[in-house]
Amino acid sequence: MPKIYVVEEILRFRKRQQLPDESIANYITFLCEVVTICDCKATAGDFLCDQIMEETIHHIINEEFLLEIHKLDQTIEVARQME
After folding, report:
1. In 10 A of CB 56, how many CB atoms?
2. pLDDT tens digits, residue range 3-62?
3. Sign of torsion, CA 19 56 29 11?
4. What is the torsion angle, in degrees rounded to the nearest 10, for the CA atoms of residue 62, residue 49, residue 75 and residue 19?
5. How many CA atoms lie within 13 A of 78 on its CB side?
C-alpha cells in the first residue's frame, strides 16, 4: 500500500476547484474523500465549508455565504439548491 503524504493531500484539496461540467454533488464527494485521507476529522467541516464557498463555479453560492455563516450540512444543502 503506498504511503500517503498528508501535506500533499491537503494541498491537493486546497487547489481543487469545481470543474465547469462537474456537479456540486461530485465536487463535494471528491472533497470528502480527500478529507478522509487526511484524517483531519476535527476540522473537516470547516475545511469543507471554506473550500466549497471559495472554489465553487456557482457565484451565487458565494454570495449566499457572504450573507451568513453556515455549518457543513447547511453549506451542502445551500450549494445543492443553488445549483
Report:
1. 21
2. 677 778 888 888 888 899 998 889 888 888 887 777 666 567 777 777 777 777 766 666
3. positive
4. 60
5. 22
Among the residues of the chain, which ranges form H helices? 6-15, 24-38, 44-55, 59-67, 72-82
What are the extents of the domains in the chain?
31-83
- Cell reading at 15: 487547489
Model pTM greater than 0.70?
Answer: no
Which grid cell sits at 16?
481543487
Cβ atoms of 34 and 12 within 8 Å: the answer is yes
